[in-house]
Amino acid sequence: MMKQYDDIIIGFGKGGKTLAAELARRGHKVAMIERSDKMYGGTCINIGCIPTKTLVHAAKLAPHGVSWTDQKNYYAQAIRQKEDVVSLLRQKNYDNLTHHPNVTVYTGTGSFTAPDKVEVSLSGREKESLQAPRIFINTGAESIIPPIEGIKGNPHVFTSTSIMELKELPEKLAVIGGGYVGLEFASMYASFGSQVTVLEGHADLIPREDRDVADIVKEVLEKKGITFRMNAKVQSIAGKEIAVRDAVSEEPFHLEADAILLATGRRPFTEGLNLEAAGVETDERGAVKVNERLQTTNPHVWAIGDVKGGLQFTYISLDDYRIIREDLFGDSARSTADRDPVGYSVFIDPPLSRIGLNEEEALRKGLNVKIGKLPVAGIPRARTLGETEGLFKVVIDADTNKIVGCTLFGPESSEVLNSVAIAMKAGMDYTFLRDFIFTHPSMSEALNDLMNV
Ligand SMILES: Cc1cc2nc3c(=O)[nH]c(=O)nc-3n(C[C@H](O)[C@H](O)[C@H](O)COP(=O)(O)OP(=O)(O)OC[C@H]3O[C@@H](n4cnc5c(N)ncnc54)[C@H](O)[C@@H]3O)c2cc1C
Ligand SMILES: NC(=O)c1ccc[n+]([C@@H]2O[C@H](COP(=O)([O-])OP(=O)(O)OC[C@H]3O[C@@H](n4cnc5c(N)ncnc54)[C@H](O)[C@@H]3O)[C@@H](O)[C@H]2O)c1
Question: Would the pTM of this model clear 0.95, i.e. be above it?
Fold first, then answer.
């Protein structure tokens, strides 16, 4: 029998679960469909931000100069702690929705059968048919598995999800891909005590950043013991052996690793959704096509988060929820068009955080720029923390006095960046931060000096 709802949400991601609670609070009858009982709360809680940042923190505190057995024991304990944090949050996320009388959580895979109908395949052969005038797709993204021979069935090859289940610290770790996931895991495992090699296919590390910043990041990570092989084209993997070719010199080389992490990107996940039945189109990258208010090509179906392509961050999924909330219940003033600039942090040690344009991008745009640079070693708080590596850099439009971009590589940069973001969003001149009264000693107070250009 067809079950009627006001709203169906497919996927328990950040935006979807927040929207479910909001709709339920407003008296809507909501169905939330999640395909896995290990994924209530979505990627961030279970296999993304929260477990990685729990491990990044534990890695920072890892003992050094101790035996390999002690390092392994410490790592195993960190994995257990991570599991505790994740299961607590997963349960909390589940309870938050199931405790609401207006929400029904279905644990099964959702698939469209018509523009307003979704079938849920529950465990076993059971199915439920649901119908609603509004449907929201929040199915996230999946790891891209590169077409390299020897990956399938190889117990030494991992994705970011499966490596966090690995209970034994790998002595040697090879990371294929030097993006967000690659660098965060490389930095974390190096801190736990693994010997890490990053194999990056591109000629430059973090190509989106200014070269002066990228060079310092590379130098700091190399000091941690990480080896970088750029232009690295992995040819095949056999057990622990990786056959690589240098794309420039054409030289082949081999590498042995106890664990091999695939960190070659994530793409929108729409498998099994049967989008055609709903008239929902995808683009050439497989992302669900949306307009500025996140409506798909079917105006009664919306897409939220990673599944719609673009920036893959939890806070983007959350902001997608705000756009939809305002569209359904507010003045529809919010849209994806007024979102920029959006900041980000890569949680290496120390973290790398950035918002807006970098120097190279600003120059390419023909802006007349003033550049402020501050070595982290010159910041009193960095001294008290004993973490003096890194560089802060700001790009100011000399004609308007506005901050057009800021890159912070140093301790607590993921926090400090938010102050810069607020100043930028509020349209303040750079002098606002130059003359702002910050607490002392704090990393934020370095913005006084950074902006003193
Ligand atoms: C290792 C890692 C670290 C990260 N670290 C950060 C970070 O520090 N900060 C940050 O902001 N972002 C980080 N991200 C990115 C962030 O996790 C994602 O951008 C965010 O979680 C995406 O959320 P979402 O709302 O799109 O959906 P998701 O949270 O991905 O939820 C989608 C859900 O849909 C379910 N689903 C899929 N198909 C179906 C179906 N047909 N039927 C039913 N259910 C289905 C999935 O099981 C999943 O639970 C990280 C990602 C990874 C992989
Ligand atoms: N701190 C955070 O906010 C955070 C942390 C982790 C992940 N994420 C999100 O997850 C997404 C996915 O991260 P990711 O690091 O997997 O993707 P990414 O796109 O950031 O990086 C992938 C890297 O792999 C390289 N690559 C691709 N194919 C390769 C191959 N065959 N051999 C060698 N190198 C290859 C690319 O050149 C690129 O540098 C990110 O876009 C990000 O939004 C965010």
Answer: yes
Q: What is the pLDDT of residues 308-364, one digit of tens each?
A: 999 999 999 999 999 999 999 999 999 999 999 999 999 999 999 999 999 999 999
For 32, the token pair is: 């939330």
Domain at 2-143+267-338: CATH code: 3.50.50.60
Residue with tokens 């849920």: 120
Instruction: Quick: pLDDT tens for 97-118.
Output: 999 999 999 999 999 999 999 9
Query: pLDDT (tens digit, 9 = 90+) per residue, 14-28?
Result: 999 999 999 999 999
Domain ranges of the chain: 2-143+267-338, 157-264, 344-450
CB atoms within 10 A of CB 40: 24
Fold matches, 2-143+267-338 and 157-264: yes
Q: Tell me the pLDDT band of 123, cut-offs 50, 70 and 90.
A: confident
Task: Provide residues with CB under 6 Å of ligand 2.
Answer: 146, 176-182, 184, 199-202, 232, 234, 263-266, 312-313, 344-347
Instruction: Count the alpha carbons within 13 Å of 40 in the hemisphere toward its beta carbon.
Output: 19
Ligand 1 centroid to 89 CA: how many Å? 15
State which fold the 157-264 domain adopts: FAD/NAD(P)-binding domain (3.50.50)
Structure tokens at 97: 């929705």
What ligand 2 atom has the least distance to the C-alpha of 202? Answer: 37
At 249 the three-state DSSP class reads coil
**Residue 141: what pLDDT?**
98
Q: Model ipTM?
A: 0.98
Do the Cβ atoms of 170 and 271 come closer than 8 Å? no
Degrees to nearest 5, angle at CA 311 with 328 and 355: 105
Q: Which CATH architecture has domain 344-450?
A: 2-Layer Sandwich (3.30)
- Angle, alpha carbons 320-322-324 (nearest 5°): 70
**CA separation, residue 244 to residues 197, 230, 299 (Å):** 12, 11, 48
